[in-house]
Design brief:
The protein is an alpha/beta fold. It is 35% helix and 27% strand. It is built from eight helices and eleven strands. A hairpin with a 2-residue loop joins β5 and β6 (74-75). α2 (99-109) crosses α3 and α2 runs parallel beside α4.
Length: 252
């Protein structure tokens, strides 16, 4: 039996007595890209914060590769020890650091020697077509280049899983299409588990191996695009599947 890379077990999370997640159970398998789809306020960002270790579940447990990292109101392993990489919507690049500085920051925090840092950074810059950009600052880059720096900064850490929290929300359609391809190719190449959070139907269908639909803090259905279309588990999923039907089944 394969141990999930990320597992949430009957998780409850409240903010000021208002439920954000209610009895949520979810697994991301090794090498799988799971697209978490839901409208604003459905609990997507709360789930990301929970996996990262920024908050603890009121009830239930969070496991990474079988190890309990949060349980019943307690954070058992802090964020810096979880070996997770994250790309947020605003990218959160350090504006005062160069491209190289942004990539090197986390590696220095890990205590890696200079030779290993240089090797990892060089390989990642080459893989993402950022050669020659090492000394540029984020403000000197195009939107697509900043996206590539953000994913490079995450991947250079060699994490055990990646969380992507609506990273393409501000991009135009053509650049979004390009970055979806980059994300999928890189994640599959490295066989990394990934949780991709989005409210965009096209992104979820294009990138995810499976789609998990979240509504008001509850997981209402998980499955392939075809399963959501052919056997929607609720009226909410049925409405989404109606939109998905017109998109076709091909990936971006």
């Amino acid at each position: 039996m394969v141990t999930p890379a990320i597992a949430l077990e009957e998780v409850f999370l409240n903010y000021r007595d208002v439920p954000a997640l209610a009895g949520l159970t979810l697994e991301v398998q090794p090498g799988e890209i799971l697209a978490l789809l839901g409208p604003s306020g459905s609990g997507k960002s709360s789930l990301v914060r929970l996996v990262l270790g920024l908050v603890a579940p009121a009830r239930g447990a969070v496991r990474l590769q079988g190890e309990a990292v949060s349980r019943e109101g307690r954070i058992l392993k802090p964020p810096e020890e979880r070996r997770l990489a994250v790309v947020f919507q605003d990218l959160a690049l350090w504006p005062h650091l160069t491209v190289r500085g942004n990539l090197e920051f986390g590696l220095k925090a890990q205590g890696l020697p200079a030779a290993e840092r240089n090797g990892r950074i060089g390989r990642m810059l080459g893989r993402l077509g950022l050669q020659g950009k090492e000394r540029r600052f984020p403000g000197e880059l195009s939107g697509g280049e900043r996206q590539r720096v953000a994913i490079a900064r995450a991947m250079v850490l060699e994490p055990r899983a990646v969380l992507l929290d609506e990273p393409l929300a501000s991009l135009d359609a053509s650049l979004k299409h390009e970055m979806l391809f980059v994300f999928r190719e890189l994640l599959k190449e490295r066989r990394l588990a990934a949780l991709y959070v989005t409210h965009d139907l096209r992104e979820a269908a294009s990138l995810g191996d499976r789609i998990a639909v979240l509504e008001r803090g509850r997981l209402v259905q998980t499955g392939s695009l075809e399963q959501l279309r052919e056997a929607p588990g609720s009226e909410f999923v049925k409405a989404l599947a109606g939109d998905l039907f017109w998109m076709g089944g091909s990936r971006a």
